[in-house]
Design a protein that fits this description.
This protein is mostly helical. It has 2 domains: about 30 residues; about 220 residues, MetI-like (MetI-like fold). Helix 7 runs antiparallel to helix 8 and helix 8 packs parallel to helix 9.
Length: about 260
């Protein structure tokens, strides 16, 4: 049954990719390479710059190529999501289970949730320079706020649905949190982690474009400054492939973690 359900999704995805490629081919036939490079030119740019991109040594005295810089970006996205997950999960659980913390933290968390994430980038650059913390700080902030809000609402719902019943069976508050509330939070937390990771790629690349010293965003900026559109699009394609693979791995790990839920 799973194979039958998986097949149409894969076929649909392939058809979608082919449709985009066809539209792009039509556009590239009527425009210059600087505006709409042809698909062969894009893949040539990926191959030529995969291990080493000369544009980096020319423009920023940097090293590496498409692959090494994409790995750098991927590493920072995953570290940022993991850090934000720990902070957000602990904060959301405390908001739901600790009364005094809920009274003190509910309003500040709500206010932080309304802050435009990209507006924080100038402050992070001012405080931390071009370090990795300044570039993946956007990912950490977005993940922490998103996870905290989701965990708080999920924990509140689980408390109404399960915690009161557990209390009638004699479970203490701490035992209820560990044995009842935490398992109930896992499915929704995995979903929000996948969403935060998806957004994290964009935030990380934007931070690197604006001022990062390494990463795929810096490489995109270098290609764009030199009007090498094929190279910039090639980097985006590689990032997209890596992002899809990471999402698939997170999804598989999530299904294994909550296999009891099936």
């Amino acid at each position: 049954m799973r194979i039958r359900a998986f097949g149409p999704a894969v076929a649909g995805g392939i058809v979608g990719v082919l449709a985009i490629a066809a539209v792009w081919t039509v556009l590239s036939a009527n425009n210059t390479e600087a505006r709409f490079p042809s698909i062969p030119s894009i893949f040539d740019a990926i191959v030529d710059n995969f291990q080493s991109a000369p544009i980096l040594s020319y423009s920023t005295f940097g090293t590496g190529g498409v692959w090494s810089n994409t790995l750098w970006t991927a590493q920072n996205v995953l570290i940022g999501v993991a850090t934000g997950l720990v902070i957000g999960f602990a904060t959301g659980l405390a908001l739901a289970r600790i009364e005094w913390f809920h009274r003190l933290g509910r309003l500040p968390i709500a206010i932080l949730g309304t802050v435009p994430v990209l507006a924080l980038l100038p402050f992070l650059t001012l405080w931390f320079g071009n370090s990795a913390l300044s570039t993946n700080g956007l990912v950490i902030f977005f993940t922490a706020i998103t996870v905290a809000s989701t965990v708080q609402s999920s924990a509140a719902a689980a408390e109404v649905k399960y915690a009161d019943y557990a209390a009638t069976l004699g479970l203490s508050t701490n035992r209820t949190t560990v044995s009842v509330i935490l398992p109930a939070l896992l499915p929704s937390t995995i979903g929000v982690v996948r969403a935060a990771t998806a957004f994290g790629w964009g935030f990380q690349c934007i931070a690197e474009v604006m001022g990062g010293s390494q990463g795929a965003g810096r490489l995109i900026r270098s290609f764009s400054d030199a009007t090498q559109t094929a190279g910039a699009i090639g980097v985006l394609i590689v990032i997209g492939i890596v992002a899809v693979l990471c999402d698939a791995l997170i999804g598989l790990a999530g299904r294994w973690i909550v296999r009891w839920n099936e």
